[in-house]
Structure formats: C-alpha cells, structure tokens
Write a structure and sequence with these properties.
- This protein is an alpha+beta fold.
- The protein has a single domain (about 20-170), classed as Chalcone isomerase (3-Layer(bba) Sandwich).
- It has 6 helices and 6 strands.
- The protein has helices at about 1-15, 20-30, 80-90, 100-110, 145-155, 165-170; strands spanning about 35-45, 45-55, 70-75, 120-125, 130-135, 135-140.
- The protein has a 6-stranded antiparallel β-sheet.
- Helix 3 packs antiparallel against helix 4 (about 100-110) and helix 3 crosses helix 5.
- The longest helix has 15 residues, at about 1-15.
- The radius of gyration is 16 Å and the shape is globular.
- This is Chalcone isomerase domain-containing protein.
- InterPro entries: Chalcone_isomerase.
- Keywords: Signal.
Length: about 180
Amino acid sequence: MSGNWKSVVLSLALLAAPAWAQLPAVLEAREPALVARGSGAMRWLGLKLYDATLYTEAGAPFSWERPFALKLSYARDVDGAAIARVSRDEMDRFGQSEAERARWYARMSRLFPDVRRGDTIVGLMDGAGAAFWHNGRYLGRIDEAAFARRFFSIWLDEATREARLREALLGRGAP
C-alpha cells in the first residue's frame, strides 16, 4: 500500500507543479529513480563549452536498454541552429539514412533553443525516443528510438570523439 500511496502523491505533485519545476521531479520520480552517475567538462580548443552530467537508474549500470538522462550546463552562449547542426554532423558518424538525417535535423532545428551561459538542456532517453528540457521547461520529444540512440551516442558510444568525457560520464574517470 505504501508504494501506491507514494505514486499517488508524486503524481498529484507533478500535476500541481509549474512546468519549469517539473524536470527534477521527472528525473527523481522514475522507478527506480534516476541519479547522477558521472560528470565532466566538454572543451574545444581549450575553451570550456559545457559541463555534462549523466543520470542513470539508481543501483544499475549504464545500459542503452534502460532510461537515462544527460544534462548539459552551458559555459558559453550558443545558438540553437549551431546545436542542431553539430548534433547532426556528429550523428553522421554513427550511421543514418539521408531521410533520417533530414528529418532529424529539421526536428532538432525546431526543438533546440539558443542557450546562454548558465543555461541547461536535459535530454531523457526512455527507449521510445528522447524528450528535452531547457532550464526546466519542456521543449518536446522526438519519438524515434533510432534517433535517441544516435543522438546520445555523441557522448556515450564507445566510438565517441570525446572518450575521456564518456569515461567521466560513466563514472570511470575525469576528463
């Protein structure tokens, strides 16, 4: 009974909370909850672009088959068009058809906002696709599992360009 009670209270709290406050609850409300696993900084030519933190299910190792979230906390201003373009180009390394490339780029171009120093974007992979938030405000979803896998491969695939950051995200070392 206590498990059902907890779910009811949590559901009511999520419904009553303003949209900007829901993101932490979304991460913590999952059963099992998503907790910070590892973090590191992304640098380009010595300049820090953002800090990244990976959230995985409590007590479970990272797995592509389990829900996880990646939070990027930006250290500089970046326009949304650049975020979409760089994401598309990095996703090319993991294979996608021309139709997927065009469709996913169009969706990312509409979805990703301009960010300012101190802003965060969180992406949640849940198996069916990926959902995104900017500073706690829900941006939308791309309901394609293949998109979600390619997108998060940028940071988490063994073939990522940023192997040290990947290791830090997985809790295995610092970049």
